[in-house]
Amino acid sequence: MALVLVLPRSRALVALIAVAFALSTAPVAAAASSTSLAAPVIKETFTRLPCNHSTTIGLEGCAEGRLLAADGRINKEVRLLFSLFPTTSERRLFVTAEDRWFTYRSADCESFSDIDHGGTMVPVLYANCEVVDDQARSADLHDEFRQLEQGAASLPAWP
Length: 159
Prior knowledge:
- The chain has a single domain, classed as Substrate Binding Domain Of Dnak, Chain:A, Domain 2 (Up-down Bundle), CATH 1.20.1270.180.
- The protein is about 60% helix and about 5% strand.
- It contains 4 helices and 2 strands, in the order H-E-E-H-H-H.
- It has helices spanning about 10-25, 55-85, 90-115, 120-150; strands spanning about 30, 40-45.
- It has a two-stranded antiparallel ribbon.
């Protein structure tokens, strides 16, 4: 006797699958442990696909390449800003802000990519959204650096 599963093709099921996919492929923001405080680092958990503008999988690979570059830039900027905060309290607030931004990025891109309702373009839309959010965050971090520059005699160059 064969076991046959009949699954409804509802939006809820598609949303559940999309959430499971997003959680299984979501990057990890490594932050400070309770014993030592360190700058948070974005670490993507996917295996990068080759870039090819002719296929959906290839488009996903192209988006992944842009995302890895944007994440790398964010990581450099965060590391620099983190090093400029003189107190543990300021560093802890910065780490909290980065963790909350990272949570926002995930939720924002999950919502944005849902416009494809579980279609094959969801991972491409999700990754492209992450790149856009990274670019906006980079601009915010640069603004914060400029504010620190105003009161400092000498700071390292912005990455």
